[in-house]
Design a protein that fits this description.
Layout (H helix, E strand, L loop, with lengths): L1 H6 L3 H8 L5 H6 L32 H6 L6 H20 L4 H13 L7 H14 L11 H13 L27 H11 L7 H16 L7 H12 L7 H12 L7 H26 L9 H14 L10 E2 L2 E2 L1 H24 L5 H11 L2 H12 L5 H8 L3 H24 L6 H9 L3 H22 L10 H15 L12 H11 L6
Helix pairs in contact: 5-13, 6-7, 6-8, 8-9, 9-10, 9-11, 12-13, 15-16, 16-19, 17-22, 19-21, 19-22, 20-21
């Protein structure tokens, strides 16, 4: 799930590429048995005792995974799918008022359909910008529409100034007290505030204001659908959620809306089920890999890598020369950097050294392995690999560093207690406690604040120009979202029997009911 979640919503594109025999790099990558790992490393000390995480056995039965199947295949539903897709395309292009257009864009995206209508949505957003350029007159007194416009436009790369929210402040510079009665507006303001940038005090104030008053709302006084939306948002903001997980939740929620578009809803259901069918095929292929080799992975990995680096046969994916340069030195450097980070943590552990928070983070953003995952994601999501982009990526730019930070910090918040109990090194929470003498509660609040701050930096990074394009750019925040999903309530990776299992079942096993 983790890898798929990072690349979502580009799963259809990747799936089609992986089965495309005319795409040499992706074709070769999709054949896992082209490299056979030989048992050539013989000098393993059998007496070596390694610390164990003692993870519980997988709850996924091998035969069950291999049997995953769906009735919603591309072949069976292709004609119906394309007909409905064209109708939705016309719907997005239709003339409508700016607020109506914004709400339609929001619904399309939350239903998981943005990847299908990138051009149409881009044009629709530009249309909103053109229609509301006159001092935001159409939105001037409405908190919901102003907040929704701010969120959608920032999401699509328009730098909307924070000052548009000044109209909702009183003479003392605070948000007006009567806004507390506008739950719909508060909810929109709350979601918009997570698109804030560094040093945007008004957006920070909006987040505090909206969060406080949404928590203070008497749920019994709300309509059930609105109460559900508020609880969902307070559980985790939309900006931090995985696209596919959110789509599954929003399909059920949108079904209860009084002003829903039935065509859009039915197409979203069909799209979800057809993408699920593709995912099931991918999972079945993964389950077909030689599971017996997993237990021997430590002794085999060196042989595998050596074979990969030295081969001149069909798996030349990694050894080809792209535009006159060799990819292998880049792979060697990122692996060496990761191993150095592991070695530093091993030295800390065996010497009993307690790093400062800065020392820990500088090393941990590498040792969490996010940079190397994103490095490989670049190859998986890029048609035209360039030396300029590889040089840029290797230097770990801010957009990648922030993604790595989110994975590390959310992991620490969810797993550090268990990891310390089994003898691991101190994590960011304990480093802050050692630096400041703070309690664990205060340290957790501080690290959670770092998560918020990192997202603000990442938001700003999304506005920069890069020597690479989509979908790799979105792979960076999507890795952060994957981390938020896995570690929201604890160790959702090491102990996945709870919310992770529920997510996987809804994403991979159970189709959305269609009338």
């Amino acid at each position: 799930m983790a890898a798929q979640a990072i690349f979502s919503p580009f799963s259809n594109r990747l799936s089609s590429l992986s089965s495309n025999s005319h795409h040499p790099r992706i074709t070769n990558f999709a054949k896992p048995f082209l490299v056979r790992c030989l048992n050539s490393v013989q000098n393993i000390d059998s007496a070596t005792i390694r610390r164990s995480a003692n993870y519980v056995p997988s709850f996924w039965d091998y035969s069950f995974v291999k049997s995953l199947n769906s009735d919603y295949t591309e072949e069976k539903y292709a004609e119906r799918y394309e007909k409905m897709k064209e109708e939705v395309r016309c719907l997005i292009r239709a003339a409508m008022e700016p607020l109506e257009r914004l709400e339609l864009i929001d619904a399309v995206q939350r239903l998981g359909l943005r990847y299908q209508f990138e051009i149409e949505i881009k044009n629709a957003v530009q249309n909103v910008v053109n229609q509301t350029s006159d001092q935001d007159a159409l939105f001037h007194h409405d908190l919901h529409s102003t907040s929704l416009r701010f969120r959608i436009l920032r999401q699509h790369g328009f730098h909307v100034p924070q000052e548009i929210f000044d109209r909702f402040k009183d003479e003392s510079g605070h948000f007006k007290a009567d806004l507390c009665n506008d739950v719909k507006g508060l909810l929109s303001l709350y979601e918009a505030s997570f698109f804030g940038l560094e040093d945007e005090n008004t957006i920070d104030d909006a987040k505090v204001f909206a969060t406080k008053h949404l928590k203070d709302v008497n749920e019994a006084e709300l309509a059930p659908l609105m109460a559900r939306k508020v609880n969902h948002a307070l559980d985790m903001p939309l900006h931090w959620r995985l696209n596919r997980v959110e789509a599954r939740w929003f399909i059920d929620t949108y079904r209860e809306e009084t002003n829903k578009n039935l065509l859009l809803l039915e197409f979203a259901k069909l799209d979800f089920n057809m993408v699920q069918s593709i995912h099931q095929k991918e999972v079945r292929k993964l389950a077909g890999w030689d599971i017996n080799e997993i237990d021997r992975l430590p002794e085999n990995i060196k042989t595998c890598l050596l074979a990969l680096f030295n081969t001149t046969n069909e798996i030349g994916y990694w050894t080809i020369r792209e535009k006159g340069f060799n990819i292998i030195p880049y792979l060697s450097k990122v692996w060496a950097t990761l191993c150095k980070a592991y070695r530093k943590e091993a030295r800390w552990f065996h010497s009993g050294y307690k790093p400062t928070l800065k020392e820990y983070i500088d090393n941990a953003v590498v040792s969490i392995a996010a940079p190397i995952m994103l490095f490989y994601a670049y190859f998986l999501t890029t048609e035209n690999i360039s030396k300029e982009a590889l040089d840029y990526i290797y230097d770990l730019p801010s957009i990648m560093r922030c993604s790595s930070m989110l994975l590390r910090l959310t992991n620490d918040l969810g797993t550090s207690s268990d990891e310390l109990a089994r003898g691991d090194i101190v994590k960011s929470i304990q480093c802050y406690m050692n630096d400041t003498g703070a309690s664990e509660e205060i340290a957790r609040e501080y690290i959670n604040g770092l998560v918020h701050q990192t997202w603000k930096t990442l938001n700003k990074d999304m506005f920069r120009d890069y020597p690479f394009e989509e979908p790799f750019i979105s792979a960076c925040p999507n890795l952060g979202r994957t981390a938020q999903c896995f570690y929201q309530y604890g160790d959702g990776h090491g102990v996945p029997q709870h919310w992770t299992k529920d997510h996987l079942i809804s994403l991979l096993v159970k189709p959305v009911p269609i009338d």
